[in-house]
């Protein structure tokens, strides 16, 4: 009998563990299997253009150069990394990257995403198994959560998935708190802030709303005490993370939070359209950019959520409380004030409804509660659910033409699984022994169908494209660093992503970061570089900006790569037509790249006799702005740019307007329309076209001597396009091909940059400059030098309160007026100098102090509580 009992216990224990394993393994393997069978890489949109670069930077520096995770010159022109770390890099899962060679970074990221999806299934199963007795129902809910529309639609936003994992644990901690049981609310609050403060805020905000929906069902005498415990623990968990939250707050005030959103009482879109996002495969590129939030949770669970409010066993007060919360969450998808509230006062740029995982979790939770009632479903309940299902599928079918993702397959799948949901609820649930396994299999099958339909609408980059790019660029960068240990910037005439400097390990100019310095963005825009609200590139630069911004080295494509196997060849995507960069001096020829050196590049810190003044820029006059930059640096009152007249145009299927020769109309809509300008430079200077932002690749295509010009814009900012350099007497042919019926070229200007004069002035200016080197990541030090009069030491380093400036070991004050409205600068008296700049993250140190004090207080309180508990259980021995 004892053996039989032990065997039965052993079987029970194994069975229990199996469901835990299944809750983790099945979602992870389902997700992985799609990429295995489709042979796709995981890199797409921001994961391929931003996050992979941050993760490469994290992997390269965490253990070898950890101070670079505080501040780095790979971050645009230079910037703090603390908020970037907090938003993108603090997931503990990222430590798994060190188990893989750098070459296999994309594969490592795919495995991390799959593990996070599995962990979301595990944490939600842990929560729901306490809510429902049947393991299959809990397992089905956990799979629906782990592979929900939010997770599938945001799998590449892997930094948000930690909050998806932690949300069930947060709600479990709140449930235990309300039940006056031990809980881990402090730890979970800390982890939510730590792993991603953005979605962590959303989860914690939902936790508060969830608490408020439950607190009124608690005894009145206990409400105030429980509210106080919740508040105290939430504050404690938040203050433990002060070392991260304090820097994030400051950097957000300097970046995104400094811009204002338009608050109004309108809708983001028609609320009824949100119904289409309940369908299978309701996802594509348009949806991630300008679509609606992802709320897919499977058809049976959608019906069970409605059944919760039709249940006869659940009292009306709880239905009312949960109904109010559900309506609030649904309204948050499209009502502007609530959208802004959930997204920290900013409209999301791409990826709408970033908080919708809390709505999905809450709806699934209501469905689980409905399942646990084990009530016999009445015909009227089945009838109402059937009417809803018919209404939903009719709406989807009749509106399919308005939504690209509502394909015929999606419509059929949605209808089929709605029918299976009705079949289960009305005729199988609580009537047959196989109900739970049947339900689980239906859910898993539907999740697979939705995953295939959704991800099938996306395009992924090849892993080899990223690997070939980083291998070749890193090789050239390492060569430059080995042969030049100075303090300088490097750029390219092409780019894979705006964050290439992070992947390849160089100091560049381009940057793509959700947390950006607004002053730097404004300057970049005024100088004519391609940019938007959170990114900028080297496109639009000239030899003048190369010199002033200290771009000492350039990487150029080596087109002679025909002998290299196609699988190993680099793709020179997003080519920047910088003919003038080929004038720089060749340093090294690699198999797929040229490394050239700009001898006129200024150091990143330089002496100038000019007094720092606020610059009044004209965003519509790029050459004037670049001239102001040049004059502020050198003091030379010369005009390097000269406007030249357009040559006579050759028109093909185009007529020009009589009053304005630069306005054109297409003759025949069925034929190609071209405008061709032929020009022979009379000097070896560089020639540029100033292109207004409203003329882009949607309006025209453009070639220069047959080479295609990239005309893509971001925020319709004007930019300079290099036509040629050192081509005296050679023909430059500029061709515009119309894509529309009309073209107005009156806003386009033709410029010549006097490069000879530029080189002469820069050469004289550089001779008087001190040398600077970066020693550790946070220290920049000069050689000893002497000034004969009062000078300004200006820089192209973005100003930051954390820069501490010392002259001969003594702290000196920085100028309050920023150089070029963005850069660090300070005055130097006549005499001998040795300058040291130290980046001291004051707010981080303050946050660390607050976190340490908070931890100490918590440990003291815990010790006192333990002593108090022990004293209560101690009983005196009788004598």
Automatic annotation (TrEMBL):
Taxonomic superkingdom: Bacteria
Regions crossing the membrane: 18-37, 108-128, 134-152, 185-213, 234-253, 294-311, 323-345, 351-371, 378-398, 410-429, 438-460, 839-861
UniProt keywords, alphabetically: Membrane, Transmembrane, Transmembrane helix
Coiled-coil stretches noted in the UniProt entry, renumbered to this chain: none
Protein name per Swiss-Prot or TrEMBL: ABC transporter permease
Organism: Lactobacillus crispatus FB077-07
Top-level taxonomy: Bacteria, Bacillati, Bacillota, Bacilli, Lactobacillales
